[in-house]
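Hey, can you fold this one?
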Amino acid sequence: MLAGVTPSPRSDPAPNRLRWPDYAGAQAVWWGVGPVAGVDCVVAVWEFDVYGGSFGEVDAAAFAAAAEHAAATRRPLLSFLRSGGTRLQEGVAGLVGLPRATLAAAGLDEAGVAHVAVVDHPTTGGVWVTIASRADLRCAVAGATVGFAGPRVVAAVTGVPPDADSHTAEAAWRAGLVDAVVEPGDMDAWLAAALVAATAVPAVDAAAPAAHRDDARASHADADAGSSDGRAATDIRAAGDSGAAREGSRAADGGLGWAQVLAARAAGRTGGGVALDAMAAHGVEMAGGDPAVRARLGLLAPAPGPAPGVPNGAGPDAPGRSGAQGVVGVAVAAEPGGAPGPAGYRLLARAARLAGKLGLPLILFVDTPGADPSPRAEAGGVAAAIGAAMEAVLRCPSPTVSVVVGEGGSGGALAAACADAVLMTPDSYLTALSPEGAAATLRIPAERTADLGGLRPTDLLRLGFADEVLPSTDPAAIVRGVAATLARLTALDQGVRLSTRRTKWSTALPGQL
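Sure. Predicted structure:
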């Protein structure tokens, strides 16, 4: 895979500051530039036959140089890791390479450049902490030893060897610490999918995302001053659209709230995971350790057929665009009835941050009656995780679109719904608390709480929470709706769009039933 990579010159060996016997200070990390899996990259490679790939002074300098070059040239950084951790023969002089690596990786975040890590056998200690675990996408080689402390260190420090299924690539994947476990022969295909998605056409200029955020925050007051309620300035609904919202309204307006809840819970309707797959069929999954939530970095599927309110060919994949549109998608929850826990909301927050970093749209599919209310989730910090995810979505500088495809209960759903644009399918609902939870609180039947809750798509459209009701629950209709909305959002000035988002979610809803 690295045959086309041109290495940069190596540094002189590190000084033997501790006068360690027979220590030569050789460099274990080298870096270079070239194509990997068809994508031009900056590559950093750990050589395990040099002091076990341990990370010392010159290795930190090499990684920092690679990250700086990636940021300057806007190439993704691809790290191939095999390391036992810090170079112990250098003591603290080697240990301080970790904050140097952390700052170098932070520079990639500031530049909006992707970092992909391949975690090989073994990857432990400070290299796992500061480089692998902070990468945007993390792929582990099947069977690799992965963890903060290696198994021998665990046994020496605690007196008890770890279980055989601990400290493995597979265990890390189950915990959501790596996004994939890949056999060596399949690595090229995974990297091709990951790197193509990570370097796809952004929705906004990602050359200086930090500056964009500052400019956008500075423009909030100016943009608000130009609109009486902060919404009129960038109404995402086309004034003369072809009736998609009105048709969807008629479809969803035929019954009371409880009938709407039953429709959202009916078997066979499109769920969040199905919608995610239709929207971004090509890409790589991002793991979070919670099967209730899925996230994917991928390519936006071409909208099948003309989109309401958008001329033919005007969508994100229209001819003349330089390459496919990259996108980050999240399904909360992935299956109907799913109740996400803390890990699921941490994945949502991570996905929102990645979308903002790369300048890619964030598309959110909401389909949950609420977050996991169990004692285990409570002790695991589900409340704080929901709050952090909501903040990450609200602060994402990229265009954000949320589609409520089924159930939407309480803050667990709202964390994935506070977007630039909120779309609803005819069989969806969103409410302050699930009907059963509201019934227990108010001491009235669940059916009654649903009927009084103003939870139908048409109710939410009138209140000003939703921006459009889609005409169908079919995945193709959802993709068309997302593509049309995204085309309108990406045409807006970023500062005005972010100001409008802030106003929408920091003021009272404008409508009433």
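The radius of gyration is 25 Å. Let me know if you want another pass with a different chain boundary.
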